[in-house]
Design goal:
The chain is of the alpha/beta class. The protein has helices spanning about 30-40, 55-65, 85-90, 100-110, 140-160; strands at about 10-20, 45-50, 70-75, 95, 120-125, 130-135. It is globular, with a radius of gyration of 15 Å.
Length: about 160
């Protein structure tokens, strides 16, 4: 890929884990995302664990947007009765990044087969900032962060900030 048009954007990341059963001590997926971002020299400006509650998830995302331009929300993207991350976050998107969810499911298919269709992974843009919603398993966060988000985040933010 020709990267000559990609801006050298300073990244400030936020990690939000959605879980009713985890806290910061037991949040292996959130810690994995932080580890991968930090390894790529990206500062973490916000980290929170919130329960599966639409208003609490929205509140955490808006709080993260104050200090971050890359927000990764993990957990709550499945089909169970309490999974509500997509319902909380997708109304915030001013533009959706449809290819993110499509590519995530394609790559997941290679790892977990047809179960990948249960994922509602999604991404979008809000005020020149990127928000990613990914499943909460450690395998899913590794795949999304390492194979999709990190290689493309500067490209995404370059386009999102063009006037």
């Amino acid at each position: 890929m020709d990267s000559s048009h990609i801006q050298n954007i300073e990244l400030k990341a936020a990690v939000i884990t959605v879980s009713t059963t985890r806290d910061k001590d037991s949040d292996l997926s959130g810690k994995k995302i932080i580890e991968l971002l930090t390894k790529d020299n990206i500062d973490i400006s916000f980290y929170e664990v919130v329960p599966d509650d639409i208003n609490l998830i929205k509140g955490a995302v808006f709080e993260a947007l104050e200090s971050s331009n890359c927000i990764i929300v993990n957990g709550g993207t499945g089909l169970t009765h309490d999974d509500c991350t997509i319902e909380a976050v997708s109304p915030i998107f001013k533009k959706t990044i449809d290819g993110f969810g499509e590519l995530f499911r394609l790559k997941s298919y290679g790892e977990i087969g047809t179960s990948s269709l249960l994922s509602r992974a999604a991404a979008g843009i809000y005020k020149e900032k990127a928000i990613f919603c990914i499943p909460g398993s450690t395998g899913a966060v590794r795949l999304a962060t390492e194979e999709i988000i990190l290689p493309e985040i500067r490209h995404i933010l370059t386009h999102a900030s063009k006037r």
